[in-house]
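Exercise: predict the fold of this chain.
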Amino acid sequence: MLLFAQLQLPTDLSWVGLAPILVLGLLMAVTLCLELRDDPDPGQPEEDSARPAVLGLGAVSLIGLIGYYLKFTGGAVVIHFHQMLVMDRISQVSGLLIAVCALLAILSGPDELERHRNRNGGEFCALIFAASLGMILMASAANTIVMFLGLELFSIALYLLCIFFPDSAPSRESGMKYFLLSSAASAVLLYGLALLYGATGTTWIGEMSGPEGLQGGLAIVGTGFVLCGLLFKLAAVPFHFWAPDVYQGAPTTVTAFMSVATKVAALAALWRFVEQFGGASAGQLAHLILFSLAILSMLVGNFLALSQQDLKRMLAYSGVANGGYLLIAPIVYEDMMGPMFFFLASYLLGNVGAFLAVAQIEALQKGVDVVVGTPGRLLDLAQQGHLQLGGLSTLVLDEADEMLDLGFLPDIERILKQIPDKRQAMLFSATMPDPIITLARTFMTQPTHIRAEAPHSSATHDTTEQFAYRAHALDKVEMVSRILQAEGRGATMIFTRTKRTAQKVADELAERGFKVGAVHGDLGQGAREKALKSFRTGEVDVLVATDVAARGIDIDDITHVINFQIPEDEQAYVHRIGRTGRAGKTGIAVTLVDWDELPRWSMIDKALGLDTPEPAETYSSSPHLYEELNIPAEAGGTIGKARSASGTRSAGGTRTQSSRRSSGESTEDKPARRNRSRRRTRGGKPVGSHPEGGEQSAPSAATGGEAASPEQGEAPSSGRRRRRRRPSKASAAN
């Protein structure tokens, strides 16, 4: 303890400035330990390897590293550890871009490893960490020694990444070429740094030049050698000749990483040396040379990129041109710093997207058994020669009717013309409109219509009981809140026609205490996937959605479907109610028809043969609503404290004014009923009826009402018919 008490660290040491380096170094060590601890045998299952832990650790840590850069990016210049490292705007933004590149490489790497059946995920991540560490050291170096160490570290790591698939001859060749040429460039750089030290007597970059810049022949020659070494990493002309071959042979993920991150590190180091040129004649000559090389890189890179057939080589020459664009920035310095970083960020995202397309094409070239895609993308790949439709044996078109609404029919016809005549084609849909039937008869030989139904079933959802009620728009939420309290109610989907209505209904139900989620077009893909996942896992049991969720959702435990607003047509109606009554289970579908929706409902009713053109007028206090849907008599407008739309309790459990008002009305809205009978069915047919007018209350002895006699019940009037019908012309939704 006394020893530690007497230990004095230098006052200029800043551990905050070392945070990125320490994080990456620790990640590299931990990753290697995980890989060594759990190195599976070739026959061992993939799940037992350490790759998931490694990838998760790397992704989370790098996200934290990105947060560090975002927090400390300010513009202040801070020197760390005796002028070894500098934290300024250049190093901070460069480090952020490098961290993003590393994160994308870690997240996209497993797919390529899987294609090559390579299970060394831990080693891959460790090398990415090592390369990122070296690049950050180089971008943050205030000393030539640190800069060279950083360059060597990421060069060695990139060499190992290039040959990461030793069974691939292009990978081995690219790695060897990068190793030899990079070593030569490093030697040139090291020789230049030695000359600069001999001319200036210091390794501190900021102290190499005088007031008028670098002076003396030795310093100028040394600077020239240093620039040659850095221009090699930037892939600028005439030091670009290594890039096409290395990019083509290296793994796609590695190519995407090194094509951006290497440029970032080299440009940051180049920027610091350009600052030392000054305004003397030697500095002006250096600017002129750099400007000429920038223009030459732009011209050569763009022209050669246009003539390439291989996508990787094309992207390599495009990177040469981009290196020329970036080389302009240090020449004019202050005016171009911000645009340069913006260009680098845009280049990063665009480059990653381009290489993801390359990875897809590489997978097709290796040979695949199944291809899943949209019609447009399939045609694009076929026109480029990457996808051979002539060898197709089976074609599956899912949601065939939806293809018409999305305008894919011409593309589908073009695909069908390119595939062999002797093949198997399958069109899946819950409904089969006339254009799809015409398409099947045109391009299929002896098409057979197969319906996935029980032999005794009709063309309707026999497993789904359907109810239609005429409801007022202002009372629909009250009705829905009571339906959600029905006995036996499980997972429930509520459909609306507009995204605004979906979000409004979800918010109002959440205020009433229901666990509810929403899926509609105003939400991002992440939010929609989160809501669907919560619905599948049971975290929320009510999902309010537009018709975007009427297709493609296969959840067997949905007990109720509520049409808050009626759909556009009968096909959409069939798809909606098809979310329940699946996998041999029963379900309940409730449709709330507003007065202005009656014409559209009449069309749906006529097309499906529901025989309910005018549903019974119903309110949240109507007795028949409680009876038919098995709603407890004590059900009200709320069930508890307000929740958020994601299903979590709101802060403090507070309610809005509307929810409190609804809660106050709940006891007044309950219908006065003495004897509540359960709704029964016999032989699949309902027993009983309800009055046409929703405002009528149930007869009771207190009011002197007379109960209907058995004779009257056997011959009810048309106005007292039960409003539950099954469609007769729609098939069950899948």
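Check your answer against the key: Residues 12-363 form one domain.
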